[in-house]
Design a protein that fits this description.
The chain has about 350 residues and is of the alpha/beta class. Helix content is about 45%, strand content about 20%. It has 2 domains: about 50-140 and about 265-335, Bordetella uptake gene, domain 1 (D-Maltodextrin-Binding Protein, domain 2, 3-Layer(aba) Sandwich), CATH 3.40.190; about 145-260, Periplasmic binding protein-like II (D-Maltodextrin-Binding Protein, domain 2), CATH 3.40.190. It contains 11 helices and 10 strands. The longest helix has about 40 residues, at about 5-45.
Length: about 350
Amino acid sequence: MGEAAGRAFRTLRSLWKMTVASALALGLVSAQVAAQGASSAAASFPRHPVRVIVQYPPGGTPDVYGRIMAAELNTLWGQPVSVENRTGAAGAIGTDAVAKSVPDGYTLLFAADAPITISPNLGIRLPYDPQVDLVPIVNVIQGPFTLMVHPSVPAHDLKTWLALIRSQPGRWSYASSGTGSNQHLAMEWVRNAAGLDLVHVPYKGFGQALADVLSGQVPMLFAGVTASIGLIQTGKLVGIAVSGAHRVAALPDLPAMAEVIPGFDVSAWYGFMAAAGTPPDIVRKINTDVRAIIARPAFQARLSRDGIEAVGNSPEEFAAQIRRDSAQWARVTQAAGVKAE
């Protein structure tokens, strides 16, 4: 290579190095700008009204606490936070509406656990995959169910109840809010684990099931702990046990079903989720703000009165809980042979 050619080569090589260096620097700056933009967007979130979708009708626990959280976030954010009840198909309609929404954090799901962890295990075709199409943000609250019987049932404690059901196989029935509901599967778990022969009487909703148990047409059911407290305290129904892993302060005399069935733990939970693809910074911002609300003494006091526990976990912990619960319900539904009707 001649001297002139060598100089030209060295010049081209220097220019190439400078070009590469400039491109790398520009890429780094662009990444920093993008990160700053995302962080800024999260810091200023929300900039306009937010919608919270509830999967069930007004009046139930998910609606009540969805509205409480919406009101608290409204105050905290200084932006309107409205609640929309998108009901039907055992919660699938509301869940799907959020799964197909714009993933920007402005449409949130105040999710009940059943459409997320139970429905996918019932052999029904869902328009969404909860572990693919949704991103967990924070589990807000959870509470057990209470096994209650009509006062005419000659068993007013767990030991006597178990002995009664075992002594009269096929004689006793229980109500639920529908096939595949939490209440149904909780009793199926008890039935299989304790070797009981019980007849399931499904209803189209909890209200109808409760009405027939109160009238004595069906002798027993599992009901959410919040609804159970007043019924037990007024003597309309008799509490037998709670379905969580431990006793609850609001009903301290009732044993946990886990005291006779090791590992038994059935609780309904309610938490925020959003469409998959929602920016992680937005997810973290909502998580942080919701956990601040959960930590307030007034909120904690209300939960205690209702027999419900605060959760307030991280997005990663919530995702892990959903995976565990889904696997648990897969085992229960398979063992009981439960399929949606």
